Amino acid sequence: MTAHRALDMVDAVASQLADPETAYLGSRAASSYRQHLAYGPPGIALLHIERAASGLGPWQRAQDWLAAASREPFTSGPDSHPFYGAPAFAHALACAADHLSSSYRRALNTMDRQIESDAVHRIDAAHRRIDAGRLPELAEFDATRGLTGYGAYLLRRDPDSSTTRAVLDYCVRLTEPITRQGETLPGWWTQTGPSGSPDDDRFPGGHANTGMAHGIGGVLALLALAARNGTLTEGHHAALRAILAWLDRWQQEAGRGPAWPYWVTRGELRTGHLAPSAPRRPSWCYGTAGLARAQQLAALALGDTDRQIEAENALVAALTDLDQLKATTDNGLCHGFAGLAHIAARTADDAHPSTADRLRAAIPALLAAVHPPGTDPARTATALIQDEERGPGLLDGATGTALALLAPSTAEPPRSAWDACLLIA
């Protein structure tokens, strides 16, 4: 019954967001957020695309949201990124085009050319930065704003293109160490804090980010997905192993099993020890859930069954550790219970027989946390959509919560590639 309750809530969210002319969008979907995958219409379109592709809703709703998202020109070039502007809309359009290709082929081909051009400019700038011996900014390589995000899109659209391989070449080079003032740093070390801004109080000397959204976890996932797809570049497997070795170095015990820090500071790098911290939520963006999935994908790409099982067991442990679950305080896709359920389902689909059932067994409790027994789905949907902080959007809001409930509730993988932007499949 838990899965049925979750699907009822998905239906309620989709119903209340059926018409872009009347749906509540909140402040984040207005103005510049109109172009944002995380908050605006492109992300909301993904819910209706996935439901239509699964036979759960009409295609007209998806088409209406795509039309609403494209009424004004999209930003491209240096002011855009995978979650904003033309690349964000292209992701939604590509998900629809997989099922309605004749409707969107011309527009998508035009956007693909622009996205490839933008990616090439970013790759060239990144190589010049490396050649000059400078450290990167998070936005150069991360999944939401940087080349990892571009790689996720290009790998779907044209995995054998020269631009796709150029992104992978860059990712390989990013894993090479950099020496600064006699100190060896990982190639993805940044001078800033996790916000991307200087933070000398909390992060003197910068940090190495491990997250899926903004750190090396996303790079690991992209390289793993490409390898599983058969798209390999020189040094590909060595780069996978270099990132895995870094994660092994900083692995720690947390409750029932291993966990990984959100980041490593300069002081921690010098001492070789992580500072004590309270249990952290095991989310997609940061933490054990996203990193466990990335490591599982890497293990599958390398044919390392032992590491695969270890990663899957780490996710089982995180999803059954009360202390880590207590640190999870919302229902969203990015760092909430729905996102955990979706990652669990996606990981279980590829899991070793010894762990698959235990991953699936953790899902009902996650679904119940999002939509507890006895709650009205329509009221729950309204509360999610009209939440002033999170709203109806994809990453933190109602759309992402609903999308993330579909695969674990139906025991079927997504019919569209809506979650490709998260680098978990």
Give structural notes:
The chain has 425 residues and is mainly α. The chain is 55% helix and 4% strand. It contains 19 helices and 6 strands. It has helices at 2-16, 41-53, 59-69, 86-97, 101-131, 138-141, 147-157, 162-174, 216-229, 236-250, 266-271, 288-302, 305-319, 322-326, 337-349, 353-361, 363-370, 377-385, 398-410; strands spanning 178-180, 183-185, 207-209, 252-254, 257-259, 263-265. The strands form 3 sheets. It has a two-stranded antiparallel ribbon with strand order 1-2. A hairpin with a 2-residue loop joins strand 1 (178-180) and strand 2. 56% of the residues are buried.
Topology:
Blueprint (H helix, E strand, L loop, with lengths): L1 H15 L24 H13 L5 H11 L16 H12 L3 H31 L6 H4 L5 H11 L4 H13 L3 E3 L2 E3 L21 E3 L6 H14 L6 H15 L1 E3 L2 E3 L3 E3 H6 L16 H15 L2 H15 L2 H5 L10 H13 L3 H9 L1 H8 L6 H9 L12 H13 L15
Antiparallel strand pairs: 1-2, 3-6, 4-5
Helix pairs in contact: 1-17, 1-18, 1-19, 2-3, 2-4, 2-19, 4-5, 5-7, 5-8, 7-8, 7-9, 8-10, 9-10, 9-12, 12-13, 12-15, 13-15, 13-16, 15-16, 15-17, 15-19, 17-19
Number of helices: 19
- Please give the number of β-strands: 6
Structural class: mainly alpha
Q: Describe the main β-sheet briefly.
A: 2 strands, antiparallel
TL;DR?
55% of the residues lie in helices and 4% in strands. It is built from 19 helices and six strands.
Keywords:
two-stranded antiparallel ribbon, mainly alpha, globular, 425 residues, two-stranded antiparallel sheet
